[in-house]
Every structure is written in structure tokens, then in C-alpha cells.
Design brief:
Length: 253
């Protein structure tokens, strides 16, 4: 039985005051989300503060990215796996579409980051998903299949996936208010599970596959009700404690 996970991706949002209010709001509703694993992924500069605010709660901490090089060194602007661990992170989002499409992260770099994160003991939340033009051209499986292949074929990639969570995030649904239908999402989730099963059946059965892309309180239950959807990666709606908690409640088993 896969335990549902709902993770909030705060992206580049927040102030010292607003992250405190948001965490306090989420903490207040945690009693209603039994059986659901909940995580929040603030910007790096707020990790220490949020880690303190989460003390003695069941909410896990995650980061939004990490450096592909595991040792400390001359990598200006980067943050290492060891630093994330020192600040209490359990999760790290890898290969978000904004990293891929705005910062040019390619499949090979995403795979490298996934391996580094997993080897350090972090749980990578690896994002895959197609652009609108790729979906419209009928290339969704080809694109997601290519992104998965890079992960599976990287040295240490299969072992890393055994620690990982996958997030299927159709790029056309992220931050647009346009959500994949539960059937559209389920089709791709099933495809991902089948493709992983060609390499490792146990992995395919066990791995959690989250859906991300304009998940809101009003559509979460239908999405999470699909057989291969094990929770969500939530952007905009994770910045409102009430909306985020409503989405977490919709993921209850
Ligand atoms: C995301 O950033 O991963 C995301 C899914 O954003 P939104 O929920 O705002 O579409």
C-alpha cells in the first residue's frame, strides 16, 4: 500500500512573516489528514526558519533543487546535498519544469541530481512532464519515456529511483489553472508505472507517483481517486494553508 504524499512547492514566494503564518496554519489542521504524508518545500533561505517552525510536527521539509556535485567546492550559487541534510530536509524536488525550461536543466543533469540526492539519503521528488505542443502533437509518452529513460540509464539511477518519488506535471497545467483531467493524468501515471515495471516490478508497485498542475481543493479528490495517483505536488494552492489542507484531506486513504 503506497502512502499518499502531498508536497507544497512554494517556489520563489514568501517572507519571514508569511512563512511563519503559513506553517502555523498548516500545523493547526494536521489532525485532519491522518494517513497522508505532508511536506513543504520553501526557498533555500527559509529552510532553517521553516525547519524550526516545523519542530515536533509530522510535516516534512523539502528543498526545491540541489547541486549535482556531492562535495563542497567552487560552485557559486549552488546548495549541496549535505547542506540540505544539515537543515533537516527529507525531500528535494528535482527537474521541476521551471528548472528544465527556464534554467536549461536537461535530462542528464536531472538524472545526476537524482542520484546525488538519493545517495545522500534524501528522497528526490523527480518531475517529468510534457509541454503543450508535445501533448498536442501526440508525443506525451515519447517525452515522458525519454525523461524516465535518462533516470533509468544513469549510473546508479535505478537504485536512486528506489528511494524516489515521481511527480507527473504536464507543463501546460502548471500555474495555468488548466488541470489535466483525472483520466488524462491516470493514463500517464499508468504509463510511467508500466515503463518502470519493465526494469523492476517491485519498484513499479512501490513508487509513489504524484500529480502536479493546478491542483486545487475542488479538483483534488477526483485526481487522487485514480488508481495510479498517489498524491500531489502543489504549487499555487500550497501558499494558502486552508487550500493546502483541503488538498491534503482529499488525499486521505
Ligand atoms: C508546481 O509548481 O509544481 C505546480 C504544480 O504548480 P501549480 O500547482 O501552481 O500548478
Amino acid at each position: 500500500m503506497r502512502r499518499p504524499l502531498v508536497a507544497g512547492n512554494w517556489k520563489m514566494h514568501g517572507t519571514k512573516a508569511s512563512v511563519r503564518a503559513l506553517v502555523e496554519g498548516i500545523r493547526q489542521g494536521m489532525g485532519e489528514v491522518a494517513g497522508v504524508e505532508v511536506a513543504v518545500c520553501p526557498p533555500f533561505v527559509y529552510l532553517e526558519r521553516v525547519s524550526t517552525l516545523l519542530a515536533d510536527s509530522d510535516i516534512a521539509l523539502g528543498a526545491q533543487n540541489l547541486c549535482q556535485v556531492p562535495q563542497a567546492g567552487a560552485y557559486t550559487g549552488e546548495i549541496s546535498d549535505a547542506m540540505l541534510l544539515e537543515f533537516g530536509c527529507r525531500y528535494v524536488i528535482i527537474g521541476h519544469s521551471e528548472r528544465r525550461n527556464v534554467y536549461g536543466e536537461d535530462d542528464a543533469l536531472v538524472a545526476q541530481k537524482c542520484v546525488v540526492a538519493a545517495r545522500a539519503g534524501l528522497t528526490p521528488i523527480v518531475c517529468v512532464g510534457e509541454l503543450l505542443e508535445e501533448r498536442e502533437a501526440g508525443h506525451t509518452e515519447q517525452v515522458v519515456g525519454r525523461q524516465l529513460a535518462a533516470l533509468l540509464e544513469a549510473e546508479g539511477g535505478l537504485e536512486a529511483l528506489r528511494r524516489a518519488v515521481i511527480a507527473y506535471e504536464p507543463v501546460w497545467a502548471i500555474g495555468t489553472g488548466r488541470t489535466a483531467t483525472p483520466q488524462q493524468a491516470q493514463e500517464v501515471h499508468a504509463f510511467i508505472r508500466t515503463r518502470l515495471g519493465e526494469h523492476d516490478e517491485q519498484l513499479a508497485r512501490d513508487i509513489r507517483i504524484l500529480y502536479g498542475g493546478s491542483v486545487k481543493p475542488g479538483n483534488a479528490a477526483d485526481l487522487f481517486g485514480m488508481a495510479d495517483i498517489d498524491g500531489g505536488l502543489i504549487g499555487g494552492a500550497s501558499l494558502d494553508a486552508g487550500d493546502f489542507l483541503a488538498i491534503c484531506r482529499a488525499a486521505r486513504p
